[in-house]
Known about the structure:
Elements: E1 4-9, H1 16-26, E2 34-39, H2 45-50, E3 56-59, H3 76-82, E4 86-89, H4 92-96, H5 102-114, E5 118-123, H6 127-131, H7 135-146, H8 152-155, E6 158-162, H9 176-193, H10 196-201, E7 204-207, H11 212-219, E8 226-229, H12 236-243
Helix pairs in contact: 7-9, 11-12
The chain binds phosphoenolpyruvate (PEP).
Amino acid sequence: MRKKIVAGNWKMNLNYSEASELIDGLNNYDNKSVELLIFPPALYLDLAQSKKGNLGLGAQNIYPADKGAFTGEISPWQLKEMGIEYCLVGHSERRSILGESNSFLKEKVDALINNGLKVVFCCGELKEERESGNQNAVVEQQLKESLFHLSETQMESVIIAYEPVWAIGTGLTASADQAEEMHAYIRSLLASKYSDHTSENTSILYGGSCKPENAKELFSKENVDGGLIGGAALKADSFLAIANSF
Length: 246
Ligand code: PEP
């Protein structure tokens, strides 16, 4: 049975005391049926690790090398050593603002998997790609070029997050039917590339202006296994309300 997961991407938000307070507001979480993950800025990973309770903890980014002359970057090997379990890859902000390509994301996926970390792989189409009906082809290409070289066993360490770019931080949400349609499509790609087993066991999260008001409807869909949450993950009450929306 695949896992239900609600993950919070804090992006470059919160100062140290705000981050500390938010972790305190979440670390008594004890709903065993939904995993709650947080992705704080790298600066606060150590703090989060020291008082995370039942929360899962991940980094927002890595550079795909274990160590070396990569000023300003952090490595999967360093994260593993700290006991960090997850990392985001392919977030649309890194694709568009930092210019990360599918082939560079593939390197990140490999670096993480080789260090035993779990990958939350983000994919999703731009507004104009949806308007021209190309959303399935775009997502398929992202998955094929960055993820589908993995073995079936390695895919057990991957969670997929479908995040239509036009819905991220915009207040626009994909309808529950649009999300379900894409999630079912991704599941069909997993079945043809790997197997029914992998398709059925891979968690697929929805991201894009998900909040307490719309989470219940999104999560009621058969192929939506939870959410990757940006803005609404910055307050304990709204993040917990989303986690309790199944
Ligand atoms: C995100 O950045 O992954 C995201 C889904 O943001 P928001 O919930 O704010 O749209």
